Amino acid sequence: MSNETNSSVTPPRLPIANWLTWVAVAVALLALGGLAVYQRVVRPAPQLEIYGEVPPFQFLNERGEPMTRDNFLGTLWVADFIFTRCGGQCPRMTASMVELQKWLNQERIEDVRLFSLSVDPEYDTTATLQEYALRFNYDPWRWSFLTGDKPTIYRFIREGFKLGLEDAPPPGTAPENEPIIHSSRFVLVDRKGQIRGYFDGLDPEEMKKLREAIRILRREKN
User: Over the Cα atoms of the chain, what is R_g?
Assistant: First the structure.
């Protein structure tokens, strides 16, 4: 009798059901990978609506310099409408704009400008606006505080930005510390001067949406 051990051993075969399971898992993984690639490469980027175009304008900034739409074209800009003696929502809106300015600086985003237009231009002279701006540590390169002719401003806001504005509300309809009724919305404008979104400047969640909308527009082609 030979003492040699047979080295040719046939490995056990996996049942057909197990092979089918492994094939199914592999196919599923390939499908998930393909879906991820499709989402990154093929799926179109989110788009923002176009709500109209900002009409031409000319106002004075807090330093007494004339500012027109041409000063903002080619960049994104965020506009709001306030007045300095407002004791209601305006300080909160301006605080939100301060946070937006901080975020833009932290992210090193240079192609976004900020625009605060007074709805009380008879009181808000350029000097008054500059004093107000300095209280909020504004960046004069990025953020402009504007004033001008009252009828022109009111028409500009109502017809250009499609926002409500009332400087003589009926008695009892406005708080004493805010005699002018105006919108708390921030308006996002693209490089071509087109309105691309409205966001409540008093709502932190809305301000997050504004930051995301800025990211989307920065990826758009000119």
Answer: 29
Give the whole-angstrom CA distance, residue 145 versus residue 141: 11
DSSP state of 27: H
The Cα 163–Cα 145 span in angstroms is 19
- Residue in this structure with the two tokens 């506009």, named with its chain if needed: 79
Residue written as token pair 């407002």: 86
| 172-220 residue pLDDT tens | 555 566 678 889 999 999 999 999 999 999 999 999 999 999 999 999 8
CA–CA distance, 11 with 169 (Å, rounded to integer)? 90
Distance, CA of 74 to CA of 82 (rounded, Å): 25
What are the angstrom distances between the C-alpha of 47 and each of 2, 32, 83, 166, 213?
81, 25, 33, 33, 9
Go through the chain and tell me how many residues it has.
Answer: 222
pTM for the predicted model, two decimal places: 0.77
For the chain, what is the mean pLDDT?
Answer: 84
- What's the CA gap between 60 and 125, in Å, rounded? 9
Q: Give me the phi and psi of 143, to 5 degrees please.
A: -120, 125
User: Which of 92, 44, 46 lies closest to 213, judged by CA?
Assistant: 46
Determine the Cα–Cα distance for residues 73 and 189; give it in Å rounded to an integer: 9
